[in-house]
Amino acid sequence: MTLTLGTAAARRGEITYGEFPLVQHPVGGMDTLPVILAQGQADGPVFWVTAGIHGIEHAGIQVIHKLITPELVKALRGTIVAIPALNPAGLRTLQRRAYYDDADPNRLFPDGRDPKPDPDRAPASALELAYGRLFEEIKKTANYFFDLHCISINSLSFVFRDRLLYRAGDEAAKQRAEATSHKMEEMARAYGHTIIADFSVNKYIDEKLHRATTAAVATLAGIPALTAEIGGSYTPNPEYVNAALTGLKNVLRWAGMLPGEMEPITGIRVIDPGYPTRRRNVARVPQACIVHYLVEPGDMVKVGDPLVEMRDAWGRVLGVLHSEYDGFVIARPTGILFYPGQSTLLLAIRDDEPLVGPYPDSFFD
């Protein structure tokens, strides 16, 4: 198939390179996204894989670099579209956000609502408009989409399942969302890492996670999409990178784009508690303190189990925080110093909410 993105044009049996225009700078020059197109000799699906939308999350860049090789292209059926740096400004400055936009860049993709003119509010930023253009390219060409992240230095490697939303009463949209969600579950199983759903619906929307890359792609375009949290910000852990690389190759096999048997996932902990889970921030400290962790990412916990010990600056014990839930530890935030109300752990707890459901009644008001 003929596929172009920015200045890159796919050619059968080759890897081609180019750039996608992002943001023009006031003093001249422009931020562009590096584009890699890898196309096999045989026709097949189009698989998008992106990384680097948060400037402190670097493992996904290495995964893409290691994934796309001449050897892969020889065996490939279809096309891989890869963008290893979705946020060049954040990556240059080692910041989560771009320095020319205060918003989290992974909350700037479309959400399906028509913008309402308001003279007291700024219009969509240059970065938001650029991601809107990129979304249209994804919508036009992709069959599958994977976005690579790193949630924390002290974290499991896992995938987030977005909650897919539809307008109440729209039966066709509901059926499309259910079909897309089913494919996402299959894709997550093929990836082979721990699977966790995102927050419950109201918090999911409050946090603007419905405007993340994968949420927009899956909900608005009906394209199966997953967020992979590889684990480890900044300097990547080679075992995590290799496990993500193996997982992506397994997804390509599942999609019929690569031959061969599924490879085992090694070098990381994969947790399956036997029930669906979603994330929740837990163990919020009641006072300023320094914490000593009593659990590690991947540890199973039950209600009442000790999670963290709080101490003052002199090392005197202030108390212990216990789990309010059954589940397992996903990640520990960077650092050990906390202020009142801050969460010290990310836990996977039992998820009883559907992965597909209607938008809240007031969403489109």
Please state the structural category.
alpha+beta
How many independent structural domains?
2
How many DSSP-defined strands?
21
Residue runs with pLDDT of under 50 for 5 or more positions: none
Q: Going by CATH, what is the homologous superfamily of the largest domain? A: Zn peptidases
Would you tell me the overall average pLDDT? 96
From the 3D structure, determine the CATH topology of the largest domain: Aminopeptidase
Beta fraction: 25-35%
CATH architecture of the largest domain: 3-Layer(aba) Sandwich
Order of helices and strands: EEEEEHHEHHEEEEHEHHEHEEEEEEEEE
Give the termini distance in whole angstroms. 41 Å
The level-1 CATH class of the largest domain: Alpha Beta
What shape does the CA trace take? globular
Descriptive overview:
There is one protein chain. The chain is α+β, with helices and mostly antiparallel strands and 365 residues long. The protein folds into 2 domains: 4-270, Zn peptidases (Aminopeptidase); 277-350, OB fold (Dihydrolipoamide Acetyltransferase, E2P). It contains 8 helices and 21 strands. It has helices at 59-67, 70-75, 88-93, 126-141, 171-191, 201-206, 213-221, 238-254, and strands at 4-5, 8-9, 14-24, 30-39, 42-51, 77-83, 144-149, 154-155, 158-161, 164-166, 194-197, 225-229, 277-284, 289-293, 300-301, 306-311, 317-322, 327-332, 337-338, 343-350, 356-358. The strands form 5 sheets. The chain has an 8-stranded mixed beta sheet, sandwiched between helices. Strands 8, 13, 15, 18 and 20 form a 5-stranded antiparallel beta sheet that branches. Helix 1 (59-67) crosses helix 8 and helix 5 crosses helix 8 (238-254). It is globular.
